[in-house]
Amino acid sequence: MKNNIYVIGANLYGCLTAAKLAKKNKNSNIVLVDSADQILNTFQSIKLKNYKINNGFHSIEIPRANALVNFLRKEIKVDLKIIPNIRKILINNFLVREENSNNYPENLKKHFKKKKINTSDHKIFLGSLSKTMKKHYVKVSKRYAQNFFDVKHFFIPWFFPTNYTYKSNDEGDRFRKKVRSGKIKAYYVLPKNGLIEELRTPFIKYFRKIKNIKMMLNTNVGYHENQLFLFSKNFKNNFFPKDKIYLCVPPLFLLKKNETLYKKIFCNKRYLANMLIRLPTTTKKIEFTEIISCHKELKELARISNYSLYKSIKNYQLVQIELILNKINKINLKNIYRKLKNILSFFSHKKKLINFKVIDLKITRSMFYPKIEDVNKVKKYFIRNLEKLPYNINYNFFLGPVNMSKQWKFSEKFKKI
Ligand SMILES: Cc1cc2nc3c(=O)[nH]c(=O)nc-3n(C[C@H](O)[C@H](O)[C@H](O)COP(=O)(O)OP(=O)(O)OC[C@H]3O[C@@H](n4cnc5c(N)ncnc54)[C@H](O)[C@@H]3O)c2cc1C
């Protein structure tokens, strides 16, 4: 009889791990477990009227994730396409590229007081801004959380010019630094129709071909008295001591024992609203893949992305808008529309208000932004409690959504164990 190796979580991380372990351990069964009824469940697209779109802008960054892209193409046989990576930054009414502050318009440049900085200290980043701009950034950061410190990674280095660099050893940060300095040209990769969910069918086909992979869907991993078990509507099975488990999800089930920590992690809830709009035919053609926003009139506006890159609809330009909302019962669509008309005036030849058409708006995700100190507490708690379990558990810590390049790197680490 073959022994079982369990991979928990059929997200991209889990699917990559299962595929790699199955090749390496031909004499073991790889059991891929997920509580959802399908693999890659969180990649599910959303429907806004007749349009299918990603639940928030998603893409695989190259060359950062070249190895992942090669694997998806050659091994999983996914049909992928490369699109440009043109990120623009909207700071109030200034729309700029990721560029040196010397190239900024004078009225924006004056708010960035230092010639250059290279630090990991958020206080130095904030201190390099004029008083007005510092106040503005701190105010906009409240779309995520009360303290700028806890969400600084959404602002640094994104809303700073390229002569302000973030010192870090993280592979993502190092890649970003090279792109921003112009040493590397970055592109995005996505399935042909732009939908990240299109990775699902090729993975299912691949898993069906590989004899030692078994998918166990609609199945949860639970925790009770220092034991883990698998359960669904119809059964409950304990793991055996020394079972080999590759954990590709945060072990939130462990927090059952620690209500205080659980509450801290899930206390700060926000909602992602996705909106699809159609710009009038007369608008200026602006080259962009995504525009990240830090705007005083609508601090909830996080990103504007170019849907027309995947689907061209006659002469119209379709644009996806992402809003981070604090409360959903208070959405004032009229107010959002009025503010956006002005904010989007960079699409107008004469900087006039833009009369766009709202195709649809939906709340599509709940998101949580815990304090960094609580994330660190959870990390210690997870590691301490996983060590106490009587299994052979392999685990890389993360809590929120992880970039796909990182998921590849985590699965590579697992392959080597
Ligand atoms: C708005 C947004 C935009 C993004 N953009 C990008 C981007 O441009 N580029 C990029 O690389 N990444 C991006 N990401 C990150 C990336 O896509 C995330 O990895 C992904 O969204 C998070 O989902 P996941 O499938 O990885 O993991 P999870 O949501 O953690 O999925 C875990 C899976 O495990 C299952 N599960 C959980 N607990 C258990 C349990 N106890 N028992 C059994 N099963 C369990 C769940 O059912 C689920 O299917 C983005 C994320 C968001 C939210």
Radius of gyration, in Å, reads: 23 Å
User: What is the percentage of strand-forming residues?
Assistant: 25-35%
- How does CATH name the architecture of the largest domain? 3-Layer(bba) Sandwich
CATH top level label of the largest domain = Alpha Beta
Structural class of the secondary elements?
A: alpha/beta
Distinct ligands, ions and cofactors found in the model: flavin-adenine dinucleotide
Mean pLDDT: 95
Tell me the number of structural domains.
Answer: 3
- Work out the helix count: 11
Largest sheet: 7 strands, mixed
Superfamily (CATH H level) name of the largest domain: FAD/NAD(P)-binding domain
Description:
It is a single chain. This protein is of the alpha/beta class and 417 residues long. It has 3 domains: 3-51 and 196-264 and 372-416, FAD/NAD(P)-binding domain, CATH 3.50.50; 86-185, no CATH class; 269-368, Alpha-Beta Plaits, CATH 3.30.70. The chain contains 11 helices and 22 strands. It has helices at 12-24, 66-74, 106-109, 122-127, 131-141, 171-180, 200-209, 259-265, 333-343, 372-388, 404-416, and strands at residues 3-8, 28-33, 46-48, 51-53, 60-62, 80-84, 87-91, 94-97, 117-119, 164-166, 187-191, 213-216, 220-224, 227-231, 236-238, 244-247, 269-279, 290-294, 301-306, 317-325, 357-368, 392-395. The strands form 6 sheets. A 7-stranded mixed beta sheet has the order 8-7-18-19-20-17-21. Helix 1 (12-24) packs parallel to helix 11. The radius of gyration is 23 Å and the shape is globular. Bound molecules: flavin-adenine dinucleotide. Flavin-adenine dinucleotide binds at residues 8-13, 33-36, 41-42, 56-60, 220-221, 249, 253, 401-405, 407.
